[in-house]
Amino acid sequence: MAAVLFGVVWSITEKECLPGGNLFGIVTLFICSVAGGKLFGRIHLPNMPPLPPLLGMLLAGFILRNIPVVTDAVYIDIRWSSSLRNIALGVILVKAGLQLDGKALKKLKAVCLRLSMFPLTFEATTMAVVSYLILGLPWVWGFILGFVLGAVSPAVVVPSMLLLHKEGYGLEQGIPTLLMAACSVDDIIAITCFTTCLGIAFATGAVWLNVLRGPLEVLGGAVTGVALGYFLHYFPSRDQGNLILKRSFLVLGLSVFALFGSNVAGIPGAGGLCTLVLAFVAGIGWGKNKAPVEEVVERFWHVFQPLLFGLIGAEIVISSLEVTTVFLGIAALLIALTVRLLITFVAVLRAGFNLKEKVFITLAWMPKATVQAAIGSTALDMARSKNDLELQKYGMDVLTVAVLSILITAPIGALLISLLGPRLLQKPKNPEWVLPLNFANVLGEGGSNAPAPIIKTSRFSLLLINL
């Protein structure tokens, strides 16, 4: 398949698909990222989930970028790289918006909201202060970095929680349900705050106007997303042929247009939230019929995920990194993570869990991966479009720390969850809590008509989790 892909692209573009050409670099990066993801996904340790494939994709791009001879051959134009990452961001935001379950969100109890808001807010604030003092970032860029790092990765947490749920660990206390549901809320808050800070950072004019502009961009993006989502309720009409294909095309097309169009219009903070909201509102309107659209979007994500993580890894050039920046970035990351762990423990203090369960929730609320890769390079891309070297340096610092957070927290978080889950969580004593669950359907391996799993929880009243 790799040879056929190369052959087709070469036969159309000729020189562009030879070493040193832009398309040669993109195709090579894509194939190597897919291979790296497959290799990491096949690393199985006893009684543990497989390593996240995204780590292999990230390392593939990093290696291609930092081998002297290979770097010259695998060249990718900056504008192409930025555009492909933005398209991947649009796909993942649509995926996140469609997977949000409105009924489940309404039923979330206070502990879930605390878990979503407080650790993120305190970690972002701590990172802003620390990066200002240690890395020398301006305050607004410190908060950009903070909200990039503040999001928890569903790509790590959800599969790990599903494995524990299958064994019954923490089921009666609702811990797997709590963590899986809170991931979505956590990511929404992080992306919303990130887009607000991004709008402030790249705005020009009076300071008070810039501060006001960020929330206005977020409000405008949300309103536009609601309008476009309602539009997709009725167009195309339900009696048309190829309805799933048309809905998938429109939701993906409008999302990518929102991301790129907001940049063209000079309101970059509006695009990401608009995409997330329009997918969520459209999914509510489609009801159960959104499952086939989710399946189409998932297929697009399988294509763009290797490109996203591979391109992120390829942005890191060892020769251009300052050793002090890397070590200071790691120090800032560890300080912010320490605050996050403390606040997470405090957030679940009065939630009815015992000490072991509180410790497990605290450690499980640490992994970072998907969101960091999706939005970590956005500020750098915008700085490059402004041709401002100082802003580009800030953007590269944000991206560097984001990549470090993925490499450090994703594997450690996955291992801690799988190792400590059976030791810190207890199986239900009452047999009625153990309900049959088709995990192939939950993980997306079943058909589009696969029923959503029903998980009984005593504390959070979450009857339906749509992953």
Q: Describe it for me?
A:
There is one protein chain. The protein is mostly helical and 467 residues long. It has one domain: Na+/H+ antiporter like fold (Up-down Bundle). 73% of the residues lie in helices and 0% in strands. The protein is built from 20 helices and no strands. Helix 7 runs antiparallel to helix 15 and helix 12 (243-264) packs antiparallel against helix 13. The longest helix is centred in the C-terminal third of the chain and has 36 residues, at 389-424. Residues 435-467 have low confidence and may be disordered. Residues 40-417 form the Cation/H+ exchanger transmembrane domain. It comes from Anabarilius grahami (Kanglang fish).
Structural class: mainly alpha
Shape: globular
Distance between the termini: 30 Å
* Main sheet overview: none
Low-confidence stretches: 435-467
Beta-strand content: under 5%
Helicity level: over 70%
Q: What is the assembly state of the chains in this entry?
A: single chain
Q: What's the domain count?
A: 1
Instruction: Report the mean per-residue pLDDT as an integer.
Output: 81
The number of helical segments is 20
CATH architecture: Up-down Bundle
Membrane topology: Multi-pass membrane protein
Organism: Anabarilius grahami
Family: Belongs to the monovalent cation:proton antiporter 1 (CPA1) transporter (TC 2.A.36) family.
Pfam families: Na_H_Exchanger
